[in-house]
């Protein structure tokens, strides 16, 4: 049984992470780290106000095997590194870090400590993303040359519990960090390590402290160019994903929906009801030595690398 400590009780951990841990038969929720004890009460597990206090507890030291870092981005690197150095395996929320240097340090620490370190890019487990990877390898669209992913929504700065997303000191950036990161990771999953990247960020409609739109362009060794365009100023929602090749294209819009269309075929491949559960299952498999980690710190590093290049423009 893998005992988990979850840091942070926010939207993602409440709706997805803790339910996934509770549903995974080899996992057990051991405890929570939160500044608000009332949030921990419904789970009926031990709770600590800080990670330091939790790691100093003899029970945690002896019985906790894995830690989920579900806090705002500025805490990801210090909490991940602290947990790894305490001998724990770590699964961290995305994006991995505030910048490429932090991401590199996190990967290095995991290697030095000999611990499993994953990042929550759960779209790598979408059945249709996995199927698209198979189709690309089989030459279904000939040589892939261009991919585009867009995610547009309205986010006016009235974020409630998610208001930290508009603070660059806590979030790192706006939609580039929050929603582009997932799509950049999809590109990296499908096409490998990026060679070059650039981008443009601006505030076209909303003038909060982070950008309200960003466009990243990424180039890969096999000749593919990827474009990721994300916007928090669109009242028309978009969640598009398509890949074009010399002989056709793969259409996966909406990325979070079930449809996959390719030359000569159409498949309906819905995601799991809890998109974090396949991620948790794979992480447990990796800790138990039964599978490799599909979304590791080493793979997630390249998303942070692209993000940094895009910010530089």
Average of pLDDT: 97
Oligomer category: single chain
Which second-level CATH architecture of the largest domain applies? 2-Layer Sandwich
Beta content comes to 25-35%
Helix and strand composition category: alpha/beta
The succession of helices and strands, N to C, reads EHEHEHHEHEHEHEHHEEEEEEEHH
- The total domain count is 2
Structure notes:
This protein has helices spanning 11-23, 37-40, 51-56, 58-63, 76-85, 100-113, 127-137, 168-171, 175-191, 276-287, 297-312, and strands at residues 2-7, 27-33, 46-48, 66-69, 89-92, 117-119, 144-154, 194-202, 213-220, 225-231, 233-245, 248-251, 259-262, 265-268. It has 313 residues and is of the alpha/beta class. The protein has two domains: 2-122, NAD(P)-binding Rossmann-like Domain (Rossmann fold); 127-270, Dihydrodipicolinate Reductase, domain 2 (2-Layer Sandwich), CATH 3.30.360. Helix 6 (100-113) links the parallel strand 5 and strand 6 (117-119). The model has no long low-confidence stretch (mean pLDDT 97).
Pick out its properties.
2 domains; six-stranded parallel beta sheet; single chain; alpha/beta; Rossmann fold; Dihydrodipicolinate Reductase, domain 2; 11 helices; 313 residues; 14 strands; six-stranded mixed beta sheet
Brief synopsis:
With 313 residues, the chain is α/β, with parallel strands linked by helices.
